[in-house]
Specification:
Layout: H1 10-26, E1 29-30, E2 39-40, H2 51-71, H3 106-115, E3 123-124, H4 136-143, H5 153-158, E4 162-166, E5 177-178, E6 181-182, E7 189-195, E8 204-211, E9 222-223, H6 229-270, H7 276-281, H8 288-298, H9 305-309, H10 314-327, H11 340-346, H12 359-382, H13 386-390, H14 393-403, H15 422-444, H16 447-451, H17 481-487, H18 491-505, H19 522-548
Antiparallel strand pairs: 1-2, 3-4, 4-7, 5-6, 7-8, 8-9
Helix pairs in contact: 2-18, 6-10, 6-14, 6-15, 12-15, 12-19
Amino acid sequence: MPSLPQNDTPENQANRKAQLENKQKQYVFDPEYLPPLTVIKDVPITESFSPKYLAERLPSTLAKLSANSLAIKVKSHWDPLDELQDYEDFYPVLPPPSVMGTYQMDESFAEQRLSGSNPMVLRAIAELPPTFSYSLQEVQTAYSPHIPVEQGLGKELAAGNLYVADYQSLSFIQGGTYLKGKKYLPAPVALFLWRKSGYRDQGQLMPVAIQIDSKPGQKADLLTPNSLGNNWLYAKTCVQIADANHHEMASHLCHTHFVMEPFAVSTARRLSSIHPLYLLLRPHFRFMLFNNEMARKRLVNQGGTVDDLLAGTIDESLQIVKDAYEKNAQESWSLDQFALPTFIKNRGLDDTTRLPHYPYRDDGQLLWDAIAKYVGEYLGLYYTNPEDLTNDYELQSWIAELADQGNDGGKVKGIPTTLETVQQLADIVTAVIYTCSAQHSAVNFTQYDYMGFIPNAPLAAYQPIKSQFKNGEGKEEELTLQELLAFLPPSNQVVDQINIMYTLGTYRYDRLGYYDEPFSDRRARTVLMRFQQNLNGIERTIDLRNKKRVFRYPVLKPSLVINSISI
């Protein structure tokens, strides 16, 4: 049965201390791998995938990928494809990604800022960002030249209807190489408008303008939906390439996998196996440490998948991770600022009257509230007065180690060094469980549907980034289809990207709120049952919402959310 350490018998207290001393030898922080983050040095074998996990995941995935690869017929592994439609022929066995039929539509492009694989970049603006090289008048002239700015975009800006997706933080990347040459990464800035008229008068987000890449001393041409067809598709593809790199290294790897790792390590080091918080968190850390170690050895390493497929060198891609943790002011991570309600508010996306359609926010909030209620009820079973918390020396050691910014600590930002109230603890635990379950599911299980169809979200460009589209007379010239296809990945890279997106984005080990090992405390089982009932109600709510949405967003349905970062 779970118990707080200060309430245990002296004999049990001694046993708990001995257990933790042993764990502290097994679970050791490594601050040298990717500073300023810290990860585990060596993963104990007890953290490995279970036989059930391996039996379910590997055979079916490998069999489908092998069959699909053998059935693909291509003329050349390294030359550009002949037609955009040729990319649709890479799925003879695998199910075609859902975005395939709509990826060129402006509505689909904009919707991915709200419910795609990376709905974490968009933010509201009260003025054009400093990374944007054009005035509002210039944007208005290019976007809708017959409407005065004060009646058009100026009015929309004042009303809070303009948004930006800014990838200028990626401009430092010079590009890596692959077997046949060099890769490139654009760093665009894209403006969007929420217009109240749209599908069934529900309103919709639409792209306004894209500045592809601004280099010192060179002002990139401004492209809009009025630009020539291939040029506009090229501009949107540049946004998608940048977004894919940001997604994989910042939103996905940094802001879920790596920032949660210290919590798993300190929970093992500082909370005994019968501590109530250990029992609550254990299923939400299952397989995570082993999974992260495999990623470091096979994906995020010299010659690994990230090095091969993403745009930058391996060092440049890892720099995105570092910047997303500490340097980049727009997305510097801390637990409190990345708590869902705070994150949404900080980006100006919390007003549902101005932005009534934002599935990531709306479905995520349902799960956040349910997890907060569950955590509060569970902790209330064991912390019935303030002294229960302040006298819990295992818990206080846990939070102190997590907040410790030294080489022996977790270096977690946005948490206190001591806990004084149960609400403080509940807020932290809610954020941790949400990140390990719903947040990771949101960025992981959308990968195949959006990034598994390569023209929608290539992981790199294969020609230098073009930012000038006008000739010497100031007239726009359209890219040829051959130029556009040469910009996209060749067949060998396409197959590799499909395989990794399918591998990462399709297998689910479990579901949120349903654990392999039940709580031994009957009271905790009752709290968990209420949580499960609440999740079932949320499932019905999201199903009803999706019937009214132009683009369904099923990924945060509780039955499709997993407990831990186990894949």
